[in-house]
Amino acid sequence: MANLNLLNTSAATDGAWASAVPSSIRTTSQDAQAKITANTGQGAMGQKDFLTLFTTQLKNQDPLDPVKNEAFVAQLAQFSQLEATTNMSQSLSTFVDSMSSSQMMSGANLIGKKVSVQDGPAQLTAGQPVQGIVSLPNGAEGITMNVYNSKGILVNTIMAGAQTAGDMTWAWDGKDDAGNALPDGTYSFKASAVSQGKQIVPAVSTMATVIGVSQQADKTVLLQIMGGKTMKLADANKIYG
Questions:
Q1: Tell me: the pLDDT tens digits for 120-152?
Q2: Domain segments of the chain as ranges
Q3: The CATH number of domain 114-240 is 2.60.40.4070
Q4: What angle do CA 156, 159, 165 make, to 5 degrees?
Q5: How far apart, in whole angstroms, are the C-alpha atoms of residue 111 and residue 236?
Q6: Which residues make beta-bridge pairs with 123?
Q7: Closest CA to 132 of 148, 114, 149
Q8: What is the pTM of this model?
Q9: How do residues 12-51 score in pLDDT, each as one tens digit?
Q10: What phi, psi does 156 have (nearest 5°)?
């Protein structure tokens, strides 16, 4: 019986064969990939596309040098991992959109209520007292609060004695140094204090009314405060009915 001599495959042989084949001729796997790319429009591979390419690879592998089982398992594992990551990303995106809607609803519930606004102006209305907080993490031996009108003119100075560590609440009755009622409008507040023998400028927060809610392109929810200031919903750490 005559012996049948088979050609051994190698990278060099395969390369030479590929270069000899006219460019107009495509392999089955190349044709499958071209169809996948045409269908997706972007070359992205979904589950159905992967299975098409995978089965085409099985049909057209070299019977004398088949792809090992381990290689197929590795391909399947990689695709499964990619698909799981994609699904997780889509789920996370849906969750973020849901949370954004929830935050908008939470912000809408604050309209008409007062929130603590750091370095924010306060609106004096009908002589109603303006309230706020001064942050004194180390306490103070004494504190001075200056009140300014919308033009930046000092209209009143409030003095307070020793304070313990924490937040000091304060209230302004809407009057000037002489005890005269000031007109309605926007007023701002700045404090100075002596703490542990040093002069400091503590943070001052005012209680301002929320008049509107908006959302930025990055899903950040903003509160519009009476007096012209805007703050993030996440920064509203104190809310008053």
A1: 788 888 888 888 899 999 999 999 999 999 999
A2: 114-240
A3: yes
A4: 130
A5: 13
A6: 186
A7: 114
A8: 0.53
A9: 544 554 555 555 555 545 555 555 555 544 545 566 676 6
A10: -160, 150
